[in-house]
Amino acid sequence: MALVELQKTGNVFTLTMDAGENRWNTALVDELTAALDEIEHSTGAAALVTTGASEKFYSNGLDLDWRNSPADHPEAGDPNAFLFMEFMSRMITLPVPTIAAVNGHAFGAGFMFALCHDYRIMRQDRGYMCANEIQLGMVIPAAELSLFRHKLSAHVFYESVQLARRWGGPHAVDAGVANDVATMDELLQKAIAKAEELAPLAENRKQFGIQKEKIFGENSILNDTNGAAYHLRTKARYPK
């Protein structure tokens, strides 16, 4: 049974995760990777919307049962082939606009996945985004902390990763964690409409991807401690 369904209407790819709580394991990453392959092999204007099939979960984090006892869950895939961080790196630099239609809870790795998108729309009446690792006795890996810090303002970052704050729809918008909210009935269509609006930005995939790489990739300008005036007067130092 497929864990991921990918459809295209007009310029918009809609990716639906259909694995219950959509917990992260090798099987899910492999199917999501195949979906990104298909999107990247397309040409012209395009955008991606992701959502979950459940009314309760967008993604409820790592598949901890599998991680703790992989032999008991062979359907979840080989733990030694769990290219989760590599997938997230690809997602955050995908050369098309990406919109997360967060239909329910997005916890831990699910929150991380939502933040890898360019734009996030949450249900206004139900569901939280939360980095709950510290509540589970886990330390958030440095790479994941970097993602959160690039996407969130300083105080929201700290409340999220250190205090495990749960961000509901309206408060998430106020904090900049989400861009918009919608009712469950309106959520997907609102996300698709936003995707259609942004899809022309991907007419030039190379340009769109290069700029994301400048923001999130090696030698990210966001990590440079020099000021804007220095950047402007020493522009030759920075790759075009």
Notable characteristics:
240 residues; alpha/beta; single chain; 10 helices; 2-enoyl-CoA Hydratase, Chain A, domain 1; four-stranded mixed beta sheet
Tell me the strand percentage band: 15-25%
Q: What is the overall shape? A: globular
Spell out the helices and strands N to C.
EEHEEHHEEHEEHHEHEHHH
**Multimeric status of the protein:** single chain
Tell me the number of strands.
Answer: 10
Mean pLDDT: 94
Query: CATH first level: which class?
Result: Alpha Beta
What is the helix tally? 10
Overall number of structural domains: 1
User: What is the CATH topology assignment?
Assistant: 2-enoyl-CoA Hydratase, Chain A, domain 1
Q: Using the CA coordinates, give the radius of gyration.
A: 18 Å
Protein structure class:
alpha/beta
Spatial strand arrangement across the major sheet: 1-2-3-5-7-10
Low-confidence stretches: none
Biggest pleated-sheet summary: 6 strands, mixed
Termini distance? 45 Å
CATH superfamily placement: 2-enoyl-CoA Hydratase, Chain A, domain 1
